[in-house]
Design brief:
The chain is of the alpha+beta class and about 200 residues long. The protein has two helices and nine strands; from the N terminus they run αβαββββββββ. It has helices spanning about 1-25, 40-45, and strands at about 30-35, 60-65, 100, 105-110, 120-125, 145-150, 160-165, 170-180, 185-195. The strands form two sheets. Strands 2, 3, 5, 6, 8 and 9 form a six-stranded mixed sheet that branches. It has a three-stranded antiparallel sheet with strand order 1-4-7, with no helix packed on it. Strand 8 (about 170-180) and strand 9 (about 185-195) form a beta hairpin. It is globular and about 35 Å long. It starts with a helix and ends with a strand. This is Chitin-binding protein. InterPro entries: Cellulose/chitin-bd_N, GlcNAc_Chitin_IntDeg, Ig_E-set. Keywords: Signal.
């Protein structure tokens, strides 16, 4: 009897460990809270019809190396992750937009649920004339980030803030935040719709 109980407990441990391993990526990692990202708008219920991302706003993880590598055009806001394709849907250009003042300082805020060694945080903005009714492509973005915050491989806290000067833009735009992880092949992507 003792041998059967031990085998049962061992089997449950293996199954439990397998379940943990299989669901580990759903634990999430991080997203921008300021300006509010599309995944946060879905997670807090502001935007409906978001599919799985509503339960996993910190999980928009994809290949790092943006813009040379990373998610393919049209899948950037979802980090190339098909499970979160609702983030790439421009919704006719009607995502709620955060009001920002061009040329002013803004404090960017990331909520981190799994603290990874970090290379940097980078922020890109769409070019003037960008069409908000189409999925985001590299050609839509200014080629250089307007803000880069090096992290030197350190682990961030549960909330990361850094201040930078917003670009000189007017009208509706999209800010792409990319959090590059130092010790994996991935990065986290967050698209924030803004209005200057």
């Amino acid at each position: 009897m003792r041998r059967k109980i031990t085998s049962l407990l061992l089997g449950l441990g293996v199954v439990g460990g397998t379940l943990l391993a299989a669901t580990g990526s759903a634990q999430g990692h991080g997203y921008t809270d300021s300006p509010v990202s599309r995944q946060q708008l879905c997670g807090n219920g502001t935007v409906r019809g978001c599919g799985q991302i509503q339960w996993e706003p910190p999980s928009v993880e994809g290949p790092k190396g943006f813009p040379a590598r990373g998610p393919v055009d049209g899948t950037i806001c979802a980090g190339g992750n098909g499970r979160f394709s609702e983030l790439d849907d421009p919704r006719g250009g009607n995502w709620p937009a955060t009001a920002l003042t061009a040329g002013r300082n803004h404090t960017f805020v990331w909520r981190i649920t799994a603290r990874h060694a970090t290379t940097d945080f980078r922020y890109y903005v769409t070019k003037d004339g960008w069409d908000p009714t189409k999925p985001l492509t590299r050609a839509d973005l200014d080629p250089q980030p307007f803000l880069t915050v090096p992290f030197g491989g350190q682990r961030p806290g549960s909330t990361v803030t850094h201040t930078g000067v917003l670009p000189q833009k007017s009208g509706r735009h999209l800010i792409l935040g990319v959090w590059s992880v130092a010790d994996t092949g991935n990065a986290f992507y967050a698209c924030s719709d803004v209005k200057f």
